[in-house]
Amino acid sequence: MVKKMPKTDVVIVGVGWGGGIIASELTKQGLSVVGLEKGLERSTEDYYMVHDELRYALRYELFQDLSKSTLTFRSNEKKRALPMRHYGSFLMGEGVGGAGVHWNGQTYRFLPYDFEIRSQTVDRYGEKKIPKGMTIQDWGITYNELEPYYDKFEKMAGISGEENPLGGKRSDKYPTGPMKHSPQMKMFTEATKKLGYHPYTVPSANLSEPYTNPDGISRAACQYCSFCERFGCEYGAKADPVVTVIPVANKTGKFDLRTHSWVRRILHKDGKATGVLYTDLTTGEEIEQPADVVVITSYVFNNTKLLLTSKIGRPYDPATGTGVIGKNYAYQVVKGAATGFYDDMEFNNFAGAGALGVVIDDFNGDNFDHSDLNFIHGGYLALTQTGARPIQNNPVPKGTPSWGAEFKDKSLKYANRSLSVGAMGASMPFRHHYLDLDPTYKDTFGDPLLRMTFDFEDQDRELAKFTAKKARGILEEMGADHVDAMEELGPYDITVYQSTHNTGGVIMGDNPDTSAVNNYSQMWDMDNLFVVGASSFPHNSGYNPTGTVGALAYRAAEGIMTYSKKGGQLV
């Protein structure tokens, strides 16, 4: 028998950045909020003196158990999708704080071009620049409209940085100054300036100095220990929901956080969400949580899956191009990199931080002329010093045997004599890239797994080769004795880690025919249901997505407050 709980003002599904921000903002204004999180509760104390690369980086301590719920993958519709049973291309977080606990902390703003990508591309290059099957669309919001929410997120998180010379205009400077520059970063800065580029310090959620945010949350500065990505921060120096927004929500007394709560359905009647149905994983009990407003703030894949299994919205049909739920899945092109090897120069590559680095945007967005190029958009090029932990890092020049005396000699020689320039390339959506429910495979509760259909396109291959060539040029300017650069981007490989920057499926826009949510993240088809996260991105930019997720979460919180007072579709 299903247990029915007392009705609340708002129920939130997933308590990461999106859920934490919305819980904080709504409870501060007097609304009662229930937060449901599938995983366990976490705190900074859990990470004291636990710099364990094997446990966290290689055995995936902070991530979803794929034996209970995963997704299936196929590169095209002619192939049978199979379940992802081992982590590879991306990592799905689980527990309070979500991916905001294990992220690196690189916190960019998308470019003004991103939000009006179709109209600006057509205005500059004409309709023919957009290849057949590419489904880019404007977001229904401009950079200038979103800018105040970027500013709010950065001040809450204490982002350390300096102004991007090629980025959108800012209403205020970063709340804390840029992180320290290592010798490697100084080399990159000097080389890129000589090449006529515009370097700036990576904007970082790893605090460069002690900071107290507008909510009164105080945090210590980064220790440059290099245990950021895949790890929780023992110092609280890396902004995550557990040390920023969730304590604010808890302090109000209006936030009821329930862990081990697996939400299986959004309940609805007569065009309105009425609450959610979840299973208490500690008891197996099914529980109904009624609410006036339902907010889905889990990871990209679960946001889409919940809508599809709950039969909300129109499932996307790639054959006709109609429908919206599952549309415009996009990833990231992160293989356009080069590594330089130095025979007589040694670096300290073990020290670092998740967002320590220098970056250029000269080849990002539409900051350069694409007239004679076979792709649109681009990506950033950066030298990041995230910490070369010993198990995962073993750089050797191409052609080195994978075992034996030569392999050992070069592994030792180049451990601290190599530098990489990486690219974070944008990912454009295509009509045949999408998410839907798998007809065969089920999760631990018997619900269909989500199915991903995706592969790299010529757009991605051309972009990757272009950025790899630019990365090679930078390393040559930095004096590398030998440079290995990517020569060809192969098919998408879900078994090899690339990035956890999945986007799309519940996309944003100004037209219900082509989008699932409006620019307040409110469902067109159900006005008391909000879906917040990178699932709303109509494409993925040449940046890490978290800053934009945070900005959209603040805007959604504002919209939910307005809706709670007035109701109706927000404009």
Care to describe what's here?
With 571 residues, the chain is of the alpha/beta class. It has one domain (3-44, 92-566): FAD/NAD(P)-binding domain (3-Layer(bba) Sandwich), CATH 3.50.50. The chain contains 12 helices and 22 strands. The chain has helices at residues 17-28, 53-58, 99-102, 112-115, 117-125, 143-157, 183-194, 245-252, 300-309, 405-414, 458-477, 546-566; strands spanning 3-4, 8-13, 33-36, 71-74, 82-83, 200-201, 211-212, 218-219, 255-258, 261-269, 272-280, 286-296, 327-330, 338-341, 357-360, 379-384, 418-425, 434-442, 448-453, 482-485, 503-505, 529-531. The strands form 5 sheets. Strands 1, 2, 3, 9, 10, 11, 12 and 22 form an 8-stranded mixed beta sheet that branches. The chain has a 6-stranded antiparallel beta sheet with strand order 6-15-16-17-14-20. Helix 6 (143-157) packs across helix 12. The protein starts with a strand and ends in a 5-residue tail after the last helix. The model has no long low-confidence stretch (mean pLDDT 96).
